[in-house]
Amino acid sequence: MPSTTSVPAVEVRDLVMHYGRGDGQVRAVDGLSLQVAPGTVTAILGPNGAGKTTTIETCEGFRRPQSGQVRVLGLDPVGDAEELRPRVGVMLQSGGAWLGVRAGEMLRHMASLYAHPMPVEPLVERLGMTSFARTTYRRLSGGQKQRLSLAMAIVGRPELVFLDEPTAGLDPQSRRATWDLVDELRRHGVTTVLTTHYMDEAQQLSDFVHIIDAGRVIASGTPTELVADGAQNTIRLRTRAGLDTDSLAKELPAGATVAEPEPGHYVLTTGVDPAVLHRLTGWCAAHDVLVDSVLVEHQTLEDRFLELTGRELR
C-alpha cells in the first residue's frame, strides 16, 4: 500500500544551478520548487535544455545545490548519501554497467549489494532479458541496455526510484512491459519519479506531473487537471459547405469559434459536454442541416505541453 507519511518523498525548494562563469554563466535551474508525494508516479517533463536533467541529478545526489534545498525521503541526497543509497534506485541513461560484464552478471552483482533484493531470474524473465543475459554490456543494443538499467534500478527493492527515459529505444512490447512494471511498483507503495519525452507515457502512468521550462516549474497537476486547464476541446463537423458560421458560433457557449478550413469541413473550438452537443444538433435541425459526421477531439497532455513550452525546436 502507498505510504501515508506526510513527509514528501522528494522536496525541492528554490533550487538554483548554473554553469560557466562571468558573462557566459547560464542558469540551468532558476529558483525551482516542487514536491513528489510518497507512493505516487510523478513525471518531470520539459523540453531539451529546460533544466529537468540537472534537477533530477541534484535529487539523485550527483550534484550539490548551489542555492536552495533538496530533500529526498527527508534526507540530504549529498550529505546523507550513504543512508539513502539502499533506499533509492536510480536508472541512468549512461547505463552504469561495466563494458565487459555480462548483463546477467551485472544484475546479480547489483542484487548482492542489497539486504533483501528481488529474485534475479524472475526479474530477468519479466523484462525479457533472458536472450541477452550472457551478452557483454558493450554488445547490447540500446533497448537492451535500457532494460538492464531499469532492472538495476529496482532489483534492490527501493522505496523511491528515479527512472530517466525508461522506454527510450524500446519496442512496443518492451515498452508495455515497462509500463506494467511501473504500475506494479506503485501498487507496492514505491514512489517513482519519471522523466520522459513520450507524452502519452506520462499521461498513462503519472499520478502527478510537473512541467519545467527555463529552469522553473511552469505548471503542475494531475494529467487530467493539466489538460482541463489548457485550450478548449475541438469538434470536427462534416456537412454541406457554406454554413452561417457566425450564427452557429452564437448558439455555442461564449468564446466558441467556428471555422470552415475546407468546404463542408468545420472546426468548432469550445468546451465539449452533452449540453454543447445538444445545442449543436439543435442548431443543425433548425437550419435543415444534415450532418455527415461529428468528431470530438479532446486535448491531450502533449497538446498542453506544447501550449506551455512552445512548438519551436530547442
Question: How does this structure look, described?
Answer:
The protein contains eleven helices and 13 strands. With 314 residues, the protein is of the alpha/beta class. The protein folds into two domains: 219 residues, P-loop containing nucleotide triphosphate hydrolases (Rossmann fold, 3-Layer(aba) Sandwich), CATH 3.40.50.300; 67 residues, Alpha-Beta Plaits (2-Layer Sandwich). It has a six-stranded mixed β-sheet. A four-stranded antiparallel β-sheet has the order 11-12-10-13, covered by helices on one side. The chain has a three-stranded antiparallel β-sheet with strand order 2-1-4, with helices on one face. The chain is elongated and about 75 Å long. The model has no long low-confidence stretch (mean pLDDT 92).
Which key terms come to mind for this protein?
single chain; 314 residues; alpha/beta; Rossmann fold; Alpha-Beta Plaits; 2 domains; six-stranded mixed beta sheet; four-stranded antiparallel beta sheet; 13 strands; 25% strand
Question: What is this structure's SSE topology?
Answer:
Elements: E1 10-19, E2 26-36, E3 41-45, H1 52-59, E4 67-72, H2 81-84, E5 88-91, H3 103-112, H4 120-126, H5 142-154, E6 160-164, H6 172-187, E7 191-195, H7 199-205, E8 208-213, E9 216-221, H8 223-229, E10 234-238, H9 245-251, E11 257-262, E12 265-269, H10 274-286, E13 293-297, H11 301-309
Parallel strand pairs: 3-7, 3-8, 5-6, 6-7
Antiparallel strand pairs: 1-2, 1-4, 8-9, 10-12, 10-13, 11-12
